[in-house]
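To the wet lab folks,

You asked to see what we're planning to order before we commit. Fair enough. Below is the target structure as tokens, and below that is the sequence we designed to fit it. If anything looks off to you, flag it before the synthesis order goes out.
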């Protein structure tokens, strides 16, 4: 998978101390995006699931945020990472430019599986006209913080 960066000890990308994985590739092209370089998947560095998990596990005091780019752009690989991180007991937040409704309407089983591993979803594209720096963990007023544990998103049986 292509990864832009992995940073440790963030306090702005979800509650508590977090390791943030910024994935490459994004189809949204939001005006005012804080990282437009992440739109092109080729700007990322190739990393295996194991490499990403090892980097996150090197900082055992943090939980995890999946960000981008767009994590759902590489959903199959990100799903494998999330599964492994959940096995390590990590709380997982995921940021997406898609809405929760769009994700739930998808027929892609990896989307539903990935949602099942995540605890919190921050959904919706960044909208420059709705930018609000006073909002915790969001860039614009249209974005929502959704507790996925209350929505009972089911993880389908694992594929062999």
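Sequence we intend to order:
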């Amino acid at each position: 998978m292509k990864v832009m960066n992995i940073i440790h000890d963030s306090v702005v990308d979800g509650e508590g101390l977090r390791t943030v994985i910024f994935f490459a590739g994004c189809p949204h092209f939001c005006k005012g995006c804080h990282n437009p370089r992440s739109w092109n998947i080729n700007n990322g560095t190739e990393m295996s699931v194991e490499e990403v998990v090892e980097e996150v596990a090197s900082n055992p005091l943090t939980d995890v945020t999946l960000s981008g780019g767009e994590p759902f752009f590489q959903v199959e690989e990100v799903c494998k990472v999330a599964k492994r991180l959940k096995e390590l007991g990590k709380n997982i937040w995921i940021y997406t430019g898609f809405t929760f409704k769009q994700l739930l309407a998808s027929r892609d089983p990896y989307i539903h599986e990935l949602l099942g591993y995540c605890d919190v979803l921050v959904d919706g594209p960044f909208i420059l006209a709705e930018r609000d720096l006073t909002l915790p963990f969001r860039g614009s007023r249209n974005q929502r913080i959704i507790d996925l544990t209350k929505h009972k998103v089911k993880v389908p049986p694992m594929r062999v």
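Structural context that might help your review: The chain has one domain: 2-150. The CA atoms of residues 76 and 90 lie 19 Å apart.

Thanks,
Computational group
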